[in-house]
Amino acid sequence: MSSTTPRYAALAGLTAAAVAIGSAELVAVATGPRSAPLVAVGGLVVDTVPEPLKQFGIALFGTYDKIALLVGTALLLGAFAALLGVLALRRLWVGLAGIAAFAALGVAAALTRAGADAFDALPALVGAGLGALVLWAFVAGPLELNPWPWTSPTPAAPAPAEPAPVEPAPEPAAPGPAAAPRVTDPESRRRFLTSTAVLLGAAGAVGLGGRWLAGRRGVSAARTAVALPTPSSAASPVPAAADLKVSQLAPYVTPNSDFYRIDTALVVPQVDPATWELRIHGRVRNPITLSFDDLLARPMVERHITLACVSNEVGGDLIGNARWLGVPIRELLAEAEPEEGADQVVGRSVDGWTCGTPTAVLRDGRDALLAVGMNGEPLPVEHGFPVRMVVPGLYGYVSACKWVTELELTSFADFDAYWVPRGWSAQGPIKTQSRIDTPRRRNRLTAGPVTVAGVAWAQQRGIRRVEVRVDDGPWQEATLAAAVSVDTWVQWSWRWEATPGDHTLQVRATDSTGETQTARRTAVAPDGATGWHTVNVSVD
Ligand SMILES: Nc1nc2c(c(=O)[nH]1)N[C@H]1C(S)=C(S)[C@@H](COP(=O)(O)O)O[C@H]1N2
Ligand SMILES: [Mo]
C-alpha cells in the first residue's frame, strides 16, 4: 500500500468516529453526561490504570490531568478510527467489526459506572450505529469515492491512473506526491471531501451542543436556590491577628474559587438536592435515610477546618482552609447505633468513589461534619454539592467524601475503600507539616530585612512552635499568628536579615504534643509526605 493512498480512507474513518462521538454526546444529554462514551471510557481508565502510571500522569499534567486524559483518549480514538477506515476499504466488515468493538467498550464502560442503568448503553449504541452507517456510506454506499485512490493502480488492473490529467493545484486534503495514485474523478473527490467536511462540522456542532445542553441541565440553579440554615453553634470568629496579610502568604481562609480540587470524577457529578438521599446502613441497628430537607432541619454547626490531600508534596498547595457548615456525623451515628466491631464507616459518593473512616474517629467528639456549606455558600458543585464529609485530622482520601450518598458501617477487615487497593494506607491521619509561602524561589530579594512567612498545620493536635533556619544555621523561632483552633493551619512569620548571596531557607513545625517534624523526606504514598520544606533564594 502506498503511503499516500490511505489518506481518504483514514479521513472517512475519522469522520465516522466523529459522527459516532458527536451523536453519542447528544444522546447523553438525556441519559446523563457520564454515559457519553469518551467520559465513560475515560472514567474506566482512571479507575483501572496502574497507580505508577497515574502518578506519572498527574506529575506530568498536574491538575490538568483530566483534560489530558480526555484529549489523549480522543487522540487514540482518532488514530484507531483512521486505521479502521483504511481497513474498511479493503474489507468493509473489518471496519464495521472495529466499530462494534468500540461500541462494546463504550457500553461496558457506561454500564459498569456506579449507579448506571440500561439506558446508559444508548449513547454508545446510537453513536456506533450512526458511525457504521457513515463508514458504509463512504466505503460502499452513496458517498463512496469513485474510484478509490488505490483501487486503480493495483498490478492486476490496467492502470487508469496513468493517463490521469496532471492537476494544477492539489487541494489541501488531496493525497501527496504526484507519483502516488490519485482519484481520477474530480467530481467524485469533491463530493467526498464536501461530505466529510459537512459531517465533521455537524458532528462537532452536535457534540458541543450536547455538552452545552448537558451543562444547562446541571444543578447550579438548584444550588443557588439553597438557603443555608443559621448554625446553632457558630464558628469562633477569626481574630484579625490570625491573618498576617503578608503578600504571597496563603490567606487564613481559602476562598472557594482558590480551594484545591482533587477527585476521580471526569465530569463533576450533578446531584439534585431534591432527589438526594443519604442512607446510613450496613452494620447498624437503626438504618436511617435522610433527605436534604431532613438534613437542613437538624441543628448545624459551623467550624473552620483545614482540609489536606495525602498527595500534597512537602511545600505543595493541595491544602485549604474553609468555614464548613454541617451536621455532626457523630449525632447521626448515635441514632443509627453501629454494631460492635463495625470499625469502619464507608462514605460512598454518587459516582461510586469510596472512603473508609474509622468509626471511632467519627465518634470521638471532633467536629466531623456532613457539610452543606463552605465559607457561607452552599458547597460548590465541584466540592461536593449538595453534601460532603469533612473530618478534621484525616487526609481527604479517607474522610472527605464529596457528593456523599451513603454511610455504610462495616469493618476495615471486610472492605477496602477506593484508594486502598491502589497502594495507599487504609489509615490516613494528617502529618504535621509546615510550608514557606514567601519568599519564593524566583523572588528577587535585596539584602536587609525580609519577611519569611508561611503556614503550619497539625489538625487535631495544633501547632506549638515553628522554626526557621538559614543555610543549616541554628533554628530560630518564628512568630505564630493567632490560632483559631487545633483543626486549622496557623500562619507564622520570621524576620530575616538577608545578606547578599545564595541561601537556603528551611522550616519545621512542632505540634502541641511536642513532636517535631522529621527531616526524613518520604514520598506522598502510602500515607503522606514527610520532610522539611526548603526554599533556595538569592539575595542581591
Ligand atoms: N466523591 C469523591 N470524593 C472525594 C474524592 C473523590 O475522588 N471522589 N477525593 C478525595 C480527596 S483525595 C480529597 S484530598 C478531597 C479533596 O476535596 P476538595 O476537592 O473539595 O478539595 O476530596 C475527597 N473526596
Ligand atoms: Mo486527596
TrEMBL record:
Protein's UniProt keywords contain Phosphoprotein: no
Molecular function GO labels: heme binding; molybdopterin cofactor binding; sulfite oxidase activity
This protein's UniProt keywords: Membrane, Transmembrane, Transmembrane helix
Segments forming domain Oxidoreductase molybdopterin-binding: 267-419
Gene3D superfamilies: 2.60.40.650, Oxidoreductase, molybdopterin-binding domain
Pro residues composition-biased segments: 154-175
InterPro entries reported for this sequence: Ig_E-set, OxRdtase_Mopterin-bd_dom, OxRdtase_Mopterin-bd_sf
Region (Disordered): 154-186
Biological processes per GO annotation: sulfur compound metabolic process
Transmembrane region(s): 67-89, 96-116, 122-143, 192-214
Coiled-coil region: none
SUPFAM superfamilies assigned to the protein according to its UniProt record, in alphabetical order: E set domains (SSF81296), Oxidoreductase molybdopterin-binding domain (SSF56524)
Protein name as annotated: Molybdopterin-binding oxidoreductase
